[in-house]
Amino acid sequence: MTRIAATVLAGAVCSGLGTIAQEPRFEAAVLKRNVSAEQGQILDTQGQRYTARNVTMRTLILNAYRPRSLQLTGAPSWVESERYDLVATMPVGTTPDLRAAMLRALLEERTGLVARYADRDENVYFLRLDRADGRLGPSLRASPRDCGAVAAAQAAGQPPIRLPDAANGAPPCGIRSEGGEFLAGGITMEGLARNLGSRAGRIIIDRTDLTGYYELSLKYDARRDVSAADAADAPSLFTALREQLGLRLEPGQAPVQGLTIDRIERPSTD
Question: Which one of 14, 21, 86, 228 is most buried, counting C-beta atoms within 10 A?
Answer without folding.
Answer: 86
